[in-house]
Write a structure and sequence with these properties.
The chain has about 260 residues and is mainly beta. It has one helix at about 10-30; strands at about 35, 40, 45-50, 55-65, 70-80, 80-85, 85-90, 100-105, 110-115, 120-125, 130-140, 150, 160-165, 175-180, 185-205, 205-225, 235, 240-245, 255-260.
Length: about 260
């Protein structure tokens, strides 16, 4: 007669206990998070919503076919009052690649991202009722990585640049402007970002540099090179000028566009 191995009994009892706990508390233990694919409403628009639904962590999947400027909107519904919806951007492996941001489109608070082509997830948690949307626009990233490699721009032509998530905060974009005659230098800037993006210009009339503006969110304006003390618009000397675009806030991300002309 074979002897029974009694030492295996404690292991069996532990396994049975784990199974019972999973059966009793499976919703909380096993289903602590879930993944959903956002509905593609159009070529550049994804959306997802729920009412009195799952309150755990939800990963919302969306795909970018190209480098893009992305705008996220949404609200958390709490007792019929729209509240901030906290969002964390994750990469294709669901790894967080940016700190938490808050969106509340009812109050006009949106999130702007500059993102490279690929698959991403928006992570939320603790919201039973909410709406979440993603719109995006294909965006060129023309800026040179240094002054010596500055992208050459033409007068009156719009040029675009991107401040993508995951890029070093010290990274700057450089653009070259060739001014042939003395005159006022008019620069039209459009911006869409979370965090401030810094626009500076260097050249024969501003050798130490001149700050044009630092923009955040959806903003635009026309700027001139001015006297640092009097703020009077200068007629700049002919020559080569450089526009440097960088992050005023180290976590800033988004996209921008500008054009220039001599007046």
């Amino acid at each position: 007669m074979k002897k029974k191995n009694r030492r295996s009994y404690p292991i069996v009892r532990i396994l049975i206990t784990v199974v019972l706990l999973c059966m009793l508390f499976g919703v909380n233990v096993v289903a602590a998070s879930k993944t959903v694919t956002m509905k593609k409403v159009s070529k550049t628009y994804y959306t997802y919503s729920q009412v009195s639904g799952f309150k755990g962590t939800v990963y919302h999947k969306f795909v970018l076919p190209s480098d893009s400027v992305v705008v996220v909107y949404g609200n958390a519904d709490q007792l019929y009052t729209f509240k901030n919806l906290n969002i964390t951007l994750c990469n294709s492996r669901k790894k967080e690649i940016r700190r938490k941001d808050a969106v509340n489109s009812d109050c006009g608070d949106l999130i702007w991202y500059g993102l490279k082509k690929g698959t991403y997830y928006l992570k939320t948690s603790g919201n039973s009722s909410y709406i979440l949307g993603v719109t995006f626009e294909k965006w060129a990233d023309k800026g040179g990585c240094s002054k010596s490699k500055a992208y050459n721009t033409a007068q009156k032509k719009v040029v675009k640049g991107l401040m993508p998530v995951g890029e070093k905060s010290s990274k700057a974009d450089w653009f070259k402007l060739k001014v042939k005659k003395k005159g006022k230098l008019c620069i039209n800037i459009k911006n869409g970002s979370t965090g401030r993006i810094h626009f500076q210009i260097y050249g024969p009339s501003v050798k130490k540099g001149y700050t044009l503006t630092a923009m955040e969110s959806e903003d635009e304006g026309i700027y001139y090179v001015r006297n640092a003390k009097t703020k009077k618009v200068l007629k700049v000397k002919p020559g080569t000028y450089y526009i440097k675009v960088s992050r005023k806030d180290k976590n800033a991300t988004g996209g921008y566009a500008f054009s220039w002309k001599r007046q």
